[in-house]
Amino acid sequence: MDSRDWIRDGLRAVLSGLLAIPLAVLNLPLFGLSVAALVLSIVPGLGMLALPGVTLLVRARADLARRLAGRAGVPIRRPYLPPPERAIVGGWRYYKWIVTDPATWRDLAWLVPGAVAGVALGALTLALPVYGLEGVLLIPLWISLGTDWYGYGAIWPIETVGEGFLSLPQGALILSVGIAVAPYLRRFDAHFGRLFLGPTRNAELRLRVSELTVTRADTVDAQAAELRRIERDLHDGAQVRLVSLGMTIGLAEEMVEGDPAGARKLLAEARETSSAALADLRHLVRGIHPPVLAERGLDGAVRALALAVPIPTTVETALPGRLDTPVESAAYFAVAEALANATRHSFARTAQVELWHTGSSLVMRVSDDGLGGADPSGGSGLRGIERRLAAFDGTMSLSSPPGGPTVVTMELPCASSSPKTTPSSGTG
């Protein structure tokens, strides 16, 4: 890791530790409100409003903890049951949904331990960097010059100016250690929170079933849209040309005896029409499964794709050989859509495609030096990539700050027993 990376990550972790302390303290009044809401729940009517209202506040606080844990490298999924249809706040169904969800009580059980852990680990995250910064700024020396007793690090008390200046290297060392250790402390806090805030095994299964249901619906919709596209392309392209071809040949048959020259002219037109129909069919086939993908595999197909992109595109791959055909097809079209977005919307000058296999999944990264600001909700391209990958339990992450660069990282589960190959590169 580059030195700037660990310094940046460490400073972010220190700031996260600073934020964690007041957020952890906030857990205590939320716990008090939750207890009060539970007491009020015995009052008809009032309890159906109080407990759900406080629970929503607790869930908002728990969601914030989950997001902070994700930034620390410990993703925590939301474990809550989906709300019932047509349930209104204050109604019995809404109240029952809140009370019967195990995640409600796990959130409540987390509030006090989470407060203690958050304050303790947040203070520890700050303590070493602050103490190291104290030595770097020579504060012990200035205090000892006025009091003649202040000490620092291994020297206590500081009795000479020379000993005072030794706070500088000690402070630098302590500050470095504090910055290096801070990300680990934040991850430890995140892992502690996941014990309470993460889904249980039953909740994981429930979420998995829900995801599969949505994924299956998206896949069915995508397949239906693809079939409609193929039908439209056939109807508007090859079918029209073939009908015209049949009519032209019929006219040539009628003219072959009385007007041989005219018949030859019609047959020439028929030949041109048949060539155009064949081109339409080839184009349609390429949209379903490109021949280059079947012939040269994903590596060669992506390189051919990069050659067709109007901006200079570099391709780097490290693949174990041929992958399963459905995986190669999904990966190819995902990369193609990402490159199309870079070409149409980013005003990029260059693009880069990276493909590698981790042993359990295929990872694709498409980056460009364009304007950035890409948003999956702003168009169908990135959403289409997500739907295509979701059919294989794949994921897509996007980094596109204003001003660029835009980096689309896609991952497809794809176990392989083939040995890894050395990376190859090229430019399209």
From TrEMBL:
Keyword Membrane appears in the UniProt entry: yes
Chain ranges passing through the membrane: 12-31, 37-58, 108-131, 165-185
Domain Signal transduction histidine kinase subgroup 3 dimerisation and phosphoacceptor: 226-293
Enzyme class label: transferase
Catalysis: reaction(s): ATP + protein L-histidine = ADP + protein N-phospho-L-histidine
A Gene Ontology cellular-component term: membrane
Its EC number(s): 2.7.13.3
Keyword presence, ATP-binding: yes
Domain Putative sensor: 18-197
One function term, GO molecular function aspect: protein dimerization activity
Domain Histidine kinase/HSP90-like ATPase: 330-414
Tree of life domain: Bacteria
UniProtKB keywords: ATP-binding, Kinase, Membrane, Nucleotide-binding, Phosphoprotein, Transferase, Transmembrane, Transmembrane helix, Two-component regulatory system
The protein's name in its UniProt record: histidine kinase
Organism of provenance: Actinoplanes octamycinicus
